[in-house]
């Protein structure tokens, strides 16, 4: 892998700094002066309609950001990713989530093998399994069909499947229900298994490494719960685990060690990062829930965006422009956070999903050659679905002192076309979507506030400064394909930012230390006096507090 380029030393970086110094954002004036602004800065890719006209892009800034992309060799790095070069330097791995959604028959040779064939071999097994579960052919130990699927995983082996399951609820087979267990807090397992019928449950143990403490602990507990339920009902446990437990992993040896028949395991590969894995075998729960055809459409959506990212000209390349804009907001305007605000209740877990995607990827302080970065990286992504967020945190975006770029997402087609008297409820809802970006951009001036006859002493409190940057993303409907497109969009935005910053967006060493320490602390937590004595004073006191106050109900 070539050495990263320090973006801050490029000519384009200097130029962008000069543009920032001269920048005086005035959306009212910008739109008045340029009647083509909305048209010029709205781009389409597959089903996505992306309006960047209420962002801080100007012709000059756009050109300079695209120059920056050139100076950091973004196009070459992008090809390196798509072609399977080992761009995950610190783990010595290729980064090929884009191969997971390439059509059958295509070729990508890695270590002498066509990985596209491997991908489709696993997909075909998953589809066949999904069909068997959905049709009722796959039966539990007492001959009953599966009704509840419980996915046990964490991080990338949980967030993607949960988010997509929630997003695609209208596509879920009404005879099936999926539940998810991720947290090692025993409450998660205890609450999730309430009311589950052991005769009709299917557990999917999803773990890339099959070594993750949380997942393996929960998997053991689930198996113990399952066997205890069978015993209680006097049902023989013979062959029961094989009928009720399947696994998803890159580590099939560990799957077998756990006691799951490799026949009932779906593999993937080390070149799929956990947070990029919802479109791999990790999506098995989703493939069962929505069915093979809808899952194929989901993958098709990803692929459509991949093709756009790889081939669309830079000046119309949506992930490229959005990623570069984010760099501008972070490095030149000091934005520390980025809101993602879906006006779609079904996307209520999308911001949480994006947190792992973006923050585990770009929360780095050294470049891929080990040198320290010289500019900020990795903003905090967060959000809630509209309109709930409007009644909670929007105040700070509208009138607070921080710059918070925000992506607004909405769909033309409602799932529930309800009317409230004369009103179409989806229109009431989307009215808010349109109003918020408008209010953020254009604000309300002092003269307008006064013109409303506002009491003089509260005029300033009622002024909206406006000029807050937003991006509006629309699509005809939230289909499996569109969801795939949205996920791929953010994957590639994350990639663009990572390349500009020169970091390895595909490792996650930062989560290791806490994990190691948790296992080292086990003896102290269990009350071993020597182990406790070795702790720092704060940790020791916290553990003692726990030991004094624990009561088992
Ligand atoms: O949080 C760290 C991490 O390694 C994530 O990157 C990953 O998605 C998660 O743990 C779960 O890992 P696994 O799928 O191997 O159980």
From TrEMBL:
Q: Which UniProt keywords apply?
A: Cytoplasm, Gluconeogenesis, Glycolysis, Isomerase
Q: In its keyword annotation, does this UniProt entry include Isomerase?
A: yes
- Enzymatic class: isomerase
Pathway assigned to this chain's UniProt record: Carbohydrate biosynthesis; gluconeogenesis; Carbohydrate degradation; glycolysis; D-glyceraldehyde 3-phosphate and glycerone phosphate from D-glucose: step 2/4
Its EC number(s)? 5.3.1.9
Q: What terms describe the molecular function in GO for this protein?
A: glucose-6-phosphate isomerase activity
Highest taxon of source: Bacteria
Q: Which InterPro entries match?
A: G6P_Isomerase, G6P_Isomerase_C, Phosphoglucose_isomerase_CS, SIS_dom_sf, SIS_PGI_1, SIS_PGI_2
Query: CDD domains of this UniProt entry?
Result: SIS_PGI_1, SIS_PGI_2
Q: Where in the cell is it found?
A: Cytoplasm
What reactions does this protein catalyze?
alpha-D-glucose 6-phosphate = beta-D-fructose 6-phosphate
Q: A Pfam family in this protein?
A: PGI
**Active site: which residues?**
360 (proton donor), 391, 515
Family per UniProt?
Belongs to the GPI family.
The protein's role, per its UniProt record: Catalyzes the reversible isomerization of glucose-6-phosphate to fructose-6-phosphate.
Full protein name = Glucose-6-phosphate isomerase
The species this protein belongs to is: Arcanobacterium hippocoleae
């Amino acid at each position: 892998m070539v050495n990263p380029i320090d973006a801050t030393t490029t000519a384009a970086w200097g130029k962008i700094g000069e543009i920032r110094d001269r920048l005086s954002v005035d959306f009212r004036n910008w739109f008045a002066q340029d009647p083509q602004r909305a048209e010029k800065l709205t781009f389409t890719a597959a089903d996505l309609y992306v309006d960047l006209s209420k962002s801080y892009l100007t012709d000059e800034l756009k050109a300079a950001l695209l120059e920056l992309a050139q100076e950091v060799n973004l196009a070459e790095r992008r090809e390196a990713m798509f072609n399977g070069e080992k761009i995950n330097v610190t783990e010595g791995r290729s980064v090929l989530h884009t191969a997971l959604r390439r059509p059958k028959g295509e070729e990508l040779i890695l270590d002498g093998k066509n990985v596209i064939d491997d991908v489709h071999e696993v997909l075909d097994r998953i589809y066949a399994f999904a069909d068997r579960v959905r049709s009722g052919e796959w039966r539990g130990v007492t001959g009953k069909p599966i009704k509840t699927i419980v996915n046990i995983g964490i991080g990338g082996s949980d967030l993607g499947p949960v988010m997509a399951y929630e997003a695609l609820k209208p596509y879920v087979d009404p005879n099936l229900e999926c539940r998810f267990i991720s947290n090692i807090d025993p409450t998660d397992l205890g609450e999730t298994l309430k009311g589950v019928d052991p005769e009709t449950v299917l557990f999917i143990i999803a773990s890339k490494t099959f070594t993750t403490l949380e997942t393996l602990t929960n998997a053991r507990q689930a198996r113990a719960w399952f066997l205890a339920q069978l015993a209680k009902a006097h049902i023989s446990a013979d062959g029961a685990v094989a009928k009720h437990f399947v696994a998803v992993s890159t580590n099939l040896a560990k799957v077998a060690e756990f006691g799951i028949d490799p026949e009932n395991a779906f593999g993937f590969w080390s070149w799929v990062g956990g947070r990029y894995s919802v479109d791999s075998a990790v999506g098995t729960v989703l493939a069962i829930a929505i069915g093979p055809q809808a899952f194929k459409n989901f993958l098709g959506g990803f692929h459509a965006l991949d093709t756009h990212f790889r081939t669309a000209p830079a000046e119309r390349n949506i992930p490229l422009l959005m990623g570069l804009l984010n760099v501008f907001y972070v490095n030149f305007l000091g934005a520390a956070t980025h809101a993602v605000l879906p006006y779609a209740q079904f996307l209520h877990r999308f911001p949480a999903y994006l947190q792992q995607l973006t923050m585990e990827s770009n929360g780095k302080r050294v470049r891929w050659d080990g040198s320290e970065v010289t500019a900020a990286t990795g903003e905090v992504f967060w959000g809630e679905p509209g309109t709930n967020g409007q009644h909670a945190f929007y105040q700070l975006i509208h009138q607070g002192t921080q710059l918070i770029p925000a992506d607004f997402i909405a769909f033309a087609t409602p799932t529930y076309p309800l009317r409230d008297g004369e009103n179409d409820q989806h229109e009431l809802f989307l009215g808010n979507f349109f109003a918020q970006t408008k209010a953020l951009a254009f604000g309300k001036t002092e003269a307008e506030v006064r013109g409303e006859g506002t009491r003089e002493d509260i005029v300033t409190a009622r002024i909206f400064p406006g000029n807050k940057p937003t991006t509006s993303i629309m699509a005809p409907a939230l289909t499996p394909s569109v969801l795939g497109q949205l996920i791929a969009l953010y994957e590639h935005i994350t990639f663009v930012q990572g390349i500009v910053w020169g970091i390895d967006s595909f490792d996650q060493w930062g989560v290791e230390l806490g994990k190691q320490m948790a296992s080292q602390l086990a003896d102290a937590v269990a009350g071993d006096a020597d182990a406790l004595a070795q702790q720092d004073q704060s940790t020791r006191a916290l553990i003692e507090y726990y030991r004094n106050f624990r009561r088992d109900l």
